[in-house]
Amino acid sequence: MSLSTAQLLRALTGLTQRLPVQRAQIHSKPLREELGTMDVAVGLTSCFLCFLLPSGWVLSHLESYKKRE
Q1: Is the pTM of this model over 0.85?
Q2: Using the 8-state DSSP alphabet, how is residue 33 labeled?
Q3: How many helices (H) and strands (E) does the chain have?
Q4: 3-state secondary structure of 53
Q5: Of 28, 40, 44, 66, which has the fewest Cβ atoms less than 10 A away?
Q6: What is the pLDDT of residues 2-25, one digit of tens each?
Q7: Could you say which residues form the signal peptide (predicted)?
């Protein structure tokens, strides 16, 4: 390693040590308002439609995917 490369690496590592680090804002406070029945129903329905329905469709048509045409 030449002297200039070593100086460049030292300058870059020193620069990264002085940069501010953003920390995640994690709060563990209780909810401001309780979730209603409709909120829970909408959340569960959307999870079902987005994740379980497409994967179920693929699994039910797996045999047709295996066939070579």
Answers
A1: no
A2: S
A3: 4, 0
A4: helix
A5: 28
A6: 567 777 777 777 655 666 767 777
A7: none
